[in-house]
Amino acid sequence: MFRLMQPHRIDREKSVSQQTRISTPLTDQVVHSLKAGERVLICGTIYGARDMAHKRLCQAISKGEPLPFELSGAVIYFVGPTPARQSRVIGAAGPTTSSRMDPFSPVLFEHGLKATLGKGTRGSEVVEALRKYGAVHLAAVGGAAALLSGRITAAEVIAYEDLQAEAVRRLQVVDFPAIVAYDCKGNSIYDRLGASR
Q: Counting C-beta atoms within 10 Å of the first and last residue's C-beta, which end of the chain has fewer, N or C?
């Protein structure tokens, strides 16, 4: 269970189980300071997108077309939320399996994306892209969709509305909990757990 804490400076002498607040857009300095296993609380704007939206983003890049949001410093959350109930900004918003985005993530990292957020392991090409382009992959808690949606304070479809739940959304988050699953040096919490990639 995540416990909210006041903002604090990163102290490498202390346990990585402490939580560090990070704000978007992410800078190179912040990304390079994060270590696999570190717990973070994300604040600011992130973007929700799944498989089909990723495919369209990569197609737009290959054609030299403008993207619906600035990739530089951005965080993409692999999510396809359920419809919002009355008085809620978003429905259940749990993470999608990260490996489904493996064919697309390296291209996005190359163009400035600094973090992805989902559940499960990433392939070797993605891990290499994290090292090459200085990015991280974050793990959100699976099975806690209602809890996570409570950390989203605003949601707006900004592209590919025809994809419905898989459309690109701009999400405002406050203290959205995650764990650094892969850092920009290629270290992984899954290696520690003995899980294969």
A: N
